[in-house]
Amino acid sequence: MRKSIHSLKRLFSYLNPYKFTFIIVLILTVIALVLGTLSPYLSGLPTTEIAKNISEGESVNFDYIFRIIVWIIVVGLIYSGTQLGSNWLMANIVQSAMRDLREEIEEKINRLPVSYFDRNQQGNILSRVTNDVDAVSNAMQQATIRSINAVLGIIFGLAMMFYINPTMALISMIMIPASLVISTFIVKISQKDFQEMQNSLGDMNGYVQENMTGFNVLKVYGREKEALQGFNTVNHRLRKYGFRANFVSSIMQPLVQLTAYGTYIAMAVLGSWNVISGVILVGQLQAFIQYIWQVSQPMGEITQLSSMIQGASASAKRVFDILDEPEEIENAHDLPLPEKISGNVVFDHVQFSYDPKKPLIEDLSFEVKAGETVAIVGPTGAGKTTLINLLMRFYDIDSGQILIDGVNSQEMNRSDVRSIFGMVLQDAWLYEGTIADNIRFGRLDATDYEVVDAAKTANVDHFIRTMPGGYEMEINSEGDNVSLGQKQLLTIARAIISDPKILILDEATSSVDTRLEGLIQRAMEKVMQGRTSFVIAHRLSTIRDADLILVMQEGSIIEHGTHESLLAKGGFYEKLYNSQFAED
Questions:
Q1: Angle at which helices 282-323 and 175-213 pack, to 10 degrees?
Q2: What residues does the ABC transporter domain cover (predicted)?
Q3: What angle do CA 311, 145, 199 make, to 5 degrees?
Q4: 297 and 417 housed in the same domain
Q5: What's the pLDDT tens digit per position in 107-149?
Q6: Inside any domain, residue 20
Q7: Are residues 258 and 145 in the same domain?
Q8: Does an H or E element contain 48, and which?
Q9: Is residue 401 part of a domain?
Q10: Alpha helix locations (H) across 112-165?
Q11: Do 298 and 374 belong to one domain?
């Protein structure tokens, strides 16, 4: 409960930049509520006047009644205008605050370490950024003004009730603490279910996103039934907590309304007696009964909003969990990049583990000179990709040091370190945009000529020109309107245009056919000239000309040397090489 209140307080802090507009909203709301509070009193005046005229045997004073009706219409029009103005301004405030929140989330995501995305499902993260922020936005949009209206409506209604008859007002106030006790009890029960409901919704989004991404694989292996069973498990859990949360919170309104009905009956009896006794006028009793509803109706509305507010609280907590995640730690004083990067790399007694209880890389040392090509081979789980992650500072080492041109990379700014590298991954990633834009992603200020030149170097220019629209062809959001091999060549062109000092190729040719492998190899030979290159090789035939081959197993380098020297040793590399060709 305390965490929920803290989340809501933190959420409303996003309204601070718009506090002056919010003050105007409050002023308009107060005006509207004052006028709304006067309406029952004004509507009771004609009743009192007619009762007086009849009791005194006079004709009905239509002039007086007409004037009151005019005032009621004027008050009603001003009331509607102020309500419209406050709602319009509040909508602007909330949407601006949500824009700021989304921008903060996006900036935060860009500062999160890679390890966060390794630990969490992409669909769950996406659900927090979209569904949870939308839930918060809807709640703030609808609940803020309505809650203010409700609270002030109760205050003004009670004030008029005390003005009419303090004794009756005091008795009527019993329904307020009774309603608060009921509301607090039910909110305490349902809040946990609302949190579980939002978590289940995030799990469902993650599950659906994961299965949609691998939909073809599911179809190929006939795993539709298993996927449906997994979905049903998550779906039933969401249904369970969704039902419990909404059902328990829905009990609140009828129970609160029950207190209002009891108060209404009691005041109708007591008020009638007071009219007969001459304590109050009949029109005042009419107005008092209306004020009971003016107090009870906002209380009922607050209970209606409780489920939305609780859902928003749960969503806000999930959003703030992202914002509170530890960021990549930067040094207090970063060492500058060397003025001229040559590309010398040294791993000096490096140790690293994802889990402190399970060491992965222990005492890893090797040296790569500028312009050399280093191939990293080994079985799955040997630590090949981990080595690249450490080199790029996606993860920080536990001990030892990684030197780039003699400077410890751990003492440099991460952005500076990564600006040295160009990367071509096994899973080629393109974003929705033109082919030219995707190549230019490597260096945004690249000219059209440089884009074409990079494409030619990557042996993809011919493919691009055969496409409809050429370089202006739009890559769709899934990136499936170009082949896998063409994607790979485009990512190589992107790496070329960034002009990296050190190049990393992570299984760059493992997913393409032999013809495209040849094109990629020729492209890579061009781009690797004069650059230090790290190649994680799947096909050992592609690394015969490497200056140095590092053979890794269980986080350690067990062999190193050239292709010929390693074959001559007759060790692990020779067995790996021969077994691969035996399989072929």
A1: 40
A2: 345-579
A3: 10
A4: no
A5: 888 888 887 887 777 777 877 888 788 888 887 877 777 777 7
A6: yes
A7: yes
A8: helix 19-55
A9: yes
A10: 114-119, 122-127, 133-164
A11: no
